[in-house]
TrEMBL record:
Claim: Signal is one of the keywords in the record: no
Keyword annotations from UniProtKB, A to Z: Cell membrane, FAD, Flavoprotein, Membrane, Monooxygenase, NADP, Oxidoreductase
InterPro entries in alphabetical order: FAD-binding_MO, FAD/NAD-bd_sf
Family per similarity comment: Belongs to the FAD-binding monooxygenase family.
Pfam assignment, any one: Pyr_redox_3
Species per Swiss-Prot/TrEMBL record: Blastomonas natatoria
Name listed for the protein in its UniProt record: Cation diffusion facilitator CzcD-associated flavoprotein CzcO
Entry keyword annotation includes NADP: yes
Amino acid sequence: MKHEKPSDLIAASHVDVLIIGAGISGIGMAVHLKEKCPDRTFAILERRSDIGGTWNLFQYPGIRSDSDMHTLGFEFEPWREQKAIADGPSILSYLKRIKDERGLNDYIRLGHKVLSASWSSSEARWTIAAEVEGPGENGPRVQHLTCSYLFMGTGYYDYDQGYDPEFAGRESFGGQIIHPQFWPKNFDYAGKRVVVIGSGATAVTIVPSMTDKAKHVTMLQRTPTWYWSRPAKDWLANSLRAIMPDEWAYRLIRFKNVRMQQIAFRRARENPKKVGDYLLKRIRKIMGSKMHEPDFQPPYGPWEQRLCLVPDGDMFKAIRDGKADIVTDHIDRFTPTGIQLKSGRHLDADVIVTATGLKLAMAGKVDFSVDGQPLDFTQHFYYKGCMFSDVPNMAIVFGYLNASWTLKVDIVADFVCRQLNHMAATGSEIAVPVLGSDGPVNEEQIFDFSSGYVQRALNILPKQGNRMPWRLNQDYLFDRKVLREEAVDDGVLAFRKAEADVEAPTAIAAE
């Protein structure tokens, strides 16, 4: 079914490609589709009332990127702002500009929460059930749509809840408790004593940002975190843009930063003590005698968890200047006036921010089935980090833990477009990675990161194979070669027609 006008897509009940999510992944996929598969119809379903995903959801003070925008930006759209470490509103503006300039408005259906997706091999299509916001008192209704190919750009956050552990005495606290994922609009914390529980990227962002109005801000951490301080502005990128076109400067800086990320990660894994000493030296340079060494020395090596970025050393400066402090201790209980620590110390607080981490969700928590059988992702292997064994016509983005999310978006979107063009050229209607077609596959641990949000989610994640193509890698340059240069028809990804006698796909147990 082809459409002469994009506006027709607003009412279409079937499209060639259905994109779920209008955040970085969904917007990126849409642009690649328009450029590389111009004959394919598509639509984007977004559960929220606006695009942006993460950058629309999170509204806590200081929300910003924890990667540089020359790699968090798309390969097709240069980042032109002065700050390479950008705030949330700037990133959202970047996405909206792409949406407008690339003509995506007519493809996006807001207020559509996908509930289920069921695949039929006989029809070679997915049937989607989405809850659609209704006007006035009508309330939500369920709408059914179909597509030939499904692209999951839902990210990996649980949008409905963050990780918020139980603390004894929580109900006795007389102040306000806030999880960053659900920050109250226009919340006034002027003159208040704030305790931020956590030491990850969210806490590191919130602490210096709240010192502008708060009486004092304390970061309460159970375990120290490794921090990397760098300028928010990239002087080289800004200098290059002054003497050459933005596109050229962007490509050069992107190339440099990708390789620097790879080198830094490799060195941290190979020589963690040397890298750790270097990171601590940078902090000492900013904080001087105000640095309490035990608060900055984690019991694990750099990049065993994601390195926390501190642009312009803002958190270190806030501690040095007495506007904030760090306390390393364990919580015994909440009290009416603050937090009682196991060491015996009491932290007085008017506001407690539980920056205790994210909760991961698999494929947007959509209820999947294949040929009438429930789809349990934990029983399927990743295929090239973007599809799943024996699951037809579906791709997903799970970004890198050691690099920028968007790097993965661009190469996965390109791979899907190559796949769609191959299907069109060969008259195929089904593309399915067949487990066992290239021999037995052994299972191994999917991540070697010790981050809490990763470890808590291992029970919902797909399987990791001991060899390609049955892996989710943390190596962008390797993945780029696999997804962009290797043949789509690799003998594992099977291409079929709908009328073929196809048995219902089932997972094959690891040897």
